[in-house]
Amino acid sequence: MSSSERFAPAPGLSRNAVIALSVIALHATALWALQSGLLRRAAEVIVPAEVLAEFLAPPAPEIPTPPPPAPPPPQPAARQPVQRRAPMPVAKPDPAPAPNAPVAVTEAVAAPVNDAPAVAAPPAPPAPPAPPAPPRIELPSSNAAYLNNPKPSYPAISRRMGEQGKVVLRVFIDAEGLPQQLEVKQSSGYERLDQQALDAVRRWRFVPGKRNGVAEAMWNIVPINFVLE
Fold first, then answer.
1. pLDDT, tens only, 205-218
2. Residue 141 sits in which domain range?
3. Is residue 131 part of a domain?
4. pTM (2 d.p.)
């Protein structure tokens, strides 16, 4: 017997009763299916298919972000055309002035008076003192005629032996012109000639040296030549 024949309306039943019986029959069928495990198997088959579809779905491709556009290159400023101005008219003086020409009167304009006190300029720094002039020095001298200084005598033994040469003496002369110390600065090569020069100059007199016109003791160089004639 088919389900349609099983649930066919019996004669004499109302339509509402038929609908109620159909709903009850559907609920009973659903309970039977739950108890028999048909719905559980359908869920086990459907759910993995949905999960598999989620795993197999390819990820959406990433859309690369386009780089920002490069700024436009600066354009050179347009050169403005140089405007040439027309020359201004120059007034030329009229050699013959017009009669009854008005005469301009120039009034002197007084300069504005500044009531603020004048600020005195700082004094200029004093000029540095001038360096002192170098002293004027006059060396002693033995060539004055009034001194009557005799020439040193030539030793006789030195003449016979042919000894000759130049002796340079360094003499300290006091403020009165008298030799106080004598030294042989350069020897003639012969001791007799050197000693003869020392003995002779020790008896000389000198014009004393002067510093700025004042006599002063100082050293002087005295050369003595021994030459065979």
1. 999 999 999 999 99
2. 137-226
3. no
4. 0.43
